[in-house]
Specification:
The protein has helices at 18-25, 31-42, 95-108, 175-185, 189-196, 200-213, 216-245, 252-260, 265-274; strands at 52-53, 73-77, 82-88, 123-129, 141-144, 159-165. Helix content is 42%, strand content 12%. The chain has a six-stranded mixed β-sheet with strand order 1-2-3-4-6-5, with helices on both faces. It starts with 17 loop residues before the first helix and ends with a helix. It is α/β, with parallel strands linked by helices. The chain is globular and about 55 Å long.
Length: 275
């Protein structure tokens, strides 16, 4: 395989920035890649997902401006299952509650008033995070379902949440999924090319990312998204600094550690107060 990149192509844009993630996995032209990624996460065999459709393919500049709106990829699989995929590189306030809310919203959206519950299809959430949103586990890939507390059988098959933590990649034993996460987590052309050499799927993923990275509008949206993220971080840091000033017995290191784990400002304050 010839994996040399055109020197005229700008630096590859990171899929860890959600706007690029959506362009890569939420584009009809790249749906073969999305099928491969979803299959790796959910454990489907090759060819088991025949096709997917994207209910929300639009990506407009107003969604990546001043506010960090959620940029998710929604896909309906050929077996009727609905999947929501998100990239969250940095801590997000109350992320677990928000994941639950979005998943529940996707379930209720399936049927209108007066329609039968039998029409409901499974909804699976896939969230890739660059921070530890599940500190209770050392695993990279954690899966949540509604289970009976002692015998652990499932209540039904309607709800499932997959959290993929990029900071815990060494713990992942699933080679196929590991390749995907290492591709997403790559920092430069050399790292992307190393993953692309392992399988033709990742060569196609690299080609798709190269096309995105060469697009002027994509780079503009990428920069706008980074600016919005930096503005949010500045607000959060200011709020945390004010919380620290009110706390005499705790060090800034503990506060920063809580931030890295994805705690909200309110949760940090409560933690410090409760000692």
């Amino acid at each position: 395989m010839d994996l040399t990149l055109d020197n005229n192509v700008p630096e590859l844009l990171s899929p860890k920035v959600d706007v690029i993630f959506k362009m890569l996995f939420g584009d009809e032209r790249n749906k073969e890649l999305t099928i491969k990624f979803i299959s790796a996460v959910l454990g489907y065999k090759d060819g088991e997902i025949e096709d997917i459709v994207f209910p929300n393919p639009q990506l407009k500049s107003e969604f990546v401006g001043d506010k960090l709106e959620i940029l998710d990829v929604r896909a309906k699989l050929s077996n009727g299952t609905e999947v929501n995929i998100e990239m969250q590189a940095d801590s997000y306030q109350d992320i677990r509650k928000r994941i639950t809310y979005y998943k529940s919203d996707m379930i209720t959206d399936q049927i209108g008033e007066g329609n039968s519950y039998s029409l409901l299809r499974p909804v699976k959430s896939i969230v890739v995070t660059g921070f530890d949103s599940v500190p209770e586990s050392k695993k990279c890939h954690t899966v949540f379902r509604m289970l009976e507390t002692e015998e652990h059988f499932s209540f039904n098959d309607l709800e499932e949440i997959h959290i993929l933590n990029l900071k815990k990649l060494p713990q992942l034993k699933n080679e196929g999924l590991l390749n995907w996460l290492e591709f997403i987590n790559s920092k430069d052309k050399e790292e992307f090319m190393q993953v692309a050499q392992r399988d033709p799927t990742f060569e196609r993923a690299l080609q798709a990312l190269t096309v995105i990275s060469a697009d002027k509008e994509a780079r503009m949206l990428y920069k706008a998204r980074l600016k919005a993220w930096r503005d949010e971080q500045a607000k959060l840091e200011d709020a945390v600094n004010k919380a620290v000033l009110k706390t005499r017995d705790e060090s800034i290191d503990e506060v920063l550690n809580l931030m890295e784990q994805g705690y909200s400002v309110e949760q940090i304050r409560a933690t410090l107060r409760n000692g």
